[in-house]
């Protein structure tokens, strides 16, 4: 009896080992009159903490989320969003960063 093969035969990688499988592909969405590239990241591919611009909360490692950036912008302008925050971005107000003792007016 011969041992089981864990690698695909042949020189090419199979589709299941594609880097797009870990991110879920890329799509284009229109928001505020501009084109945005949106990529879905599965939880197993998320390896560090990110801060969501929609709710200003952390996205911990291992949690699936979205990465969005304007189509003309570079990779430095990518932002990591919770899926719910990205879907509700039109209904949410701007999240202002205030110091601890700043007045709320």
Explain what the structure shows.
- The protein is mostly beta strands and 105 residues long.
- The protein has a domain at 19-87.
- It is built from two helices and six strands.
- The chain has helices spanning 19-23, 83-87, and strands spanning 26-31, 34-41, 50-51, 58-59, 65-70, 79-81.
- The strands form two sheets. Strands 1-2-5-6 form a four-stranded antiparallel sheet. Strands 3-4 form a two-stranded antiparallel sheet.
- It is extended, with a radius of gyration of 19 Å.
- The termini are far apart.
Write the layout of secondary structure elements.
Blueprint: H1 19-23, E1 26-31, E2 34-41, E3 50-51, E4 58-59, E5 65-70, E6 79-81, H2 83-87
Antiparallel strand pairs: 1-2, 2-5, 3-4, 5-6
Features:
10% helix; single chain; mainly beta
Q: Look at the structure and give the mean pLDDT.
A: 75
Query: Going across the major beta sheet, what is the strand order?
Result: 1-2-5-6
Radius of gyration: 19 Å
Shape: extended
Largest pleated sheet: 4 strands, antiparallel
- Measured between the Cα atoms of the first and last residue, the distance is 76 Å
Helix content percent band: under 10%
Protein name: ATP/GTP-binding protein
Region (Disordered): 1-31
Organism: Streptomyces buecherae
In short:
The chain is built from two helices and six strands. It has 105 residues and is mainly beta. The protein has a domain at 19-87.
